[in-house]
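Q: What would this chain look like folded?
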Amino acid sequence: IPRGGAGLIRTVAKEASVPVIRTGEGVCHIYIDDEADLDMGASILFNAKCSRPSVCNAVECVLVHRDVAADFWKKALPLLDEKGVELRADPEALEILGTRAVPAAESDWDAEYDDYILAVKTVGGMDEAIDFINAHGTQHSEAIITKNYFKAQHFLDHVDAAAVYVNASTRFTDGGEFGLGAEIGISTQKMHARGPMGLEELTSCKYVIYGEGQVR
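A: My prediction, written as structure tokens:
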């Protein structure tokens, strides 16, 4: 179970002669829906980016519905300014953010910055956001901010990640926070362990059976 940066993990997975559980690659997203509580969204984004930007459950890209983008950034910018977060934005977001952001390169959509840097993408709806997340995420932690129950359920069902949140920060993806005790890692694959791993995920079973002459 390699622990470290994405380059180390990929090298170990490629070169190892034993099975490897890939952990910790965290290109995490938050989608701000057009039915979001924008104050909540701004607060969650600030926590997910700024509380500890160097960890794998920190958000690296925010997707904002274009219908609420202008209002959302009025609330989010003052918070992000407290930490001097650099914004790398698509052309539509740049029209709103102006000189507060720089143009995003194509590589920004796949970047794990581990720093006070945030990619900004404007989307036309939830399905576009889901497609973008599934194309660029690392199956770690993803979040939607919305007041619409049905949209939340659709997001939960269709986003492919180990942890998917509704109206909560991605920073909760952690073995201790999940009640697993000491964390071994956060698996971004599906066989066998997925998500935060505790000792149970490293334990194999031996079945001991006492009989009294039973036959099958």
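The chain has a mean pLDDT of 94.
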